[in-house]
Amino acid sequence: MTVHIGAAPGQIAETVLLPGDPYRARWAAETYLENVELVNEVRGMLGFTGTWKGNRVTIHGSGMGMPSLSIYANELIKDYGAKTLIRIGSCGGMQETVKIRDVILAMTASSLSTPSAGLFRELNFAPCADFGLLAAAHVAATAKGTPVHAGGIYSSDVFYDERDDLNAQLTRHGVLGVEMEAAELYNLAHRHGCRALAVLTVSDHLQTGEALPSEDREKSFGDMVEIALEAAFA
Ligand code: HPA
Question: What residues in the chain have per-residue pLDDT under 50?
Fold first, then answer.
C-alpha cells in the first residue's frame, strides 16, 4: 500500500495500461481481461489486475494532467515494480492530415512544463517513447485497419488553452495532437529504466472543431486497449 494506491505488494502487474478515466479502466478490465481483481479504489482512482492471453496486466486510472499521472506512475514504478507503462487516452488533432478517430502514437511530447521541470532546471529534456513498443503498436494498428500516425505531440497543462499563437507554432512544427499526460510518463520511464508509450485517439480537432460523437467513443477506446495490449506483449 502506498499513499495513493491501496494494492498489496504483488497485486500490480509489470505491465500497466493507464487511461485517464477510472471508469474506463473498469470497462477495459471487464471487457478485455480474465480473472479480474479490483486492486485500488483510493480516492475513486480504480485499478484492476487480470490476465490477457495468459499475460498479467494492470489497468489503472491516471487522472487528468501530468501532476496526477506523475503520482500514480511514480508509485506504480517505484513501489510496485511496473516496467511497461502505456497511456491510452484521447487527444485533440492539430494537423489536417490527422482525422477524428485516427490513432496517434506519440514518439515524443513537447511541453511548457512537466512535474520533472524542477529536476531538469535549465535542461529542455526530450522525452521519447520506447521504440519497441511504438513499432509493435504501429504493426497492431495497421493490422486492425486503424488509421495511425507516429510523431510528436504536445502535453499541455491546460485543457482550456488561450495561447492560440503557441498552438499555431506547434502545428507549424508538425505536432500531431495535444493531450495532457504523456511527457511526464516518458520522463519517469527514462528515469527509472521502464518502457513507455502513449496511444491516443483523436477525439476532437483544433482546426476543424469536429468532435468524436459519444456513441463512437467506446469503440475507439476499445481499439486503443487492443493496440496497447498487443504492443505490450508482442
Ligand atoms: N486539449 C488537451 N487535451 C485533450 C484535448 C485537447 O483538445 N482533447 C483530448 N485531450
Answer: none
